[in-house]
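Q: Mind making up any chain with structure tokens?
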Amino acid sequence: MRPTVFREDIRRRSCETEILDGLAVAEDVRERCYDDLARMHRWLGNHRAILECLRRDPRPVETVLDIGCGHGALLQEMRTKLGVLAIGIDLNPPRRRLPVPILRADAVRDKLPAADVAVSVAMVHHLTSEELAALIRNVGRACRRFVILDLVRRRIPLALFRGFVAPFVNSINVQDGIRSLNRAFTPEEMERIVTDALAGTAGRFRHVVAPLYTRQIVDISYAPEGFPNHAATCLRNPAMPATPIPGSQTRKPEIAPPPFAPMSTRLPNRNRWGAVTAGAA
């Protein structure tokens, strides 16, 4: 297996496919990799940051979608620690039965089950800019809020990953981690994409970048009217329909901007609410 090395120029996003995105990885190897990833997200505080965002929502949160849930580690944490109905959405769900529901669906194109909030952890760097904008709009047809946590394409997190994370995870996760960081959006790119995706709506978002660029979080509150009808504006992929949740229905509540969960530390003067604007990172 060819090792991944640091790219000299990270000004442009890499298009290198990650190993776990392929179907050739044996299921037992994939399981071990996702166990490693779950531990890594707990070490880095990513799961805790998502849980705090949900706890601080001013409205009741009963149902949460996890977009790109992998093998469901965050789903199980949300269910046990928050008592919510947690539903996973993934292109390649695990084969083994889990105590939480995971639907095989393309969250960019398929109609999603109705929920209060959607979250996504370390997934959107797998998408193109256009796909990310389409995902944001598609989630807005099913949820009133979308919290995105992802990596940042900067040299500092690359160095930190190599020095403090890579020694403790398996070789596939090391190579995929470096590829992920090279594929991630810069804060400026992320802000531009979210702004464009919400253009023409009353949607608002808040964008926070952690010190040393260890993560960025975008917290989107959609306008009460949501986005136009899914079938009319979203390209469908009939080969991958999302399984509907029995009894689910579309909700269009009035939305108040949710307060953002504080991270342990944050960059000063970079957090503000705005109508389709956010603090630059």
Summary: The chain has one domain: 23-233. DSSP finds eight helices and seven strands in the chain. Residues 1-6, 230-281 have pLDDT under 50 and may be disordered. The radius of gyration is 18 Å.
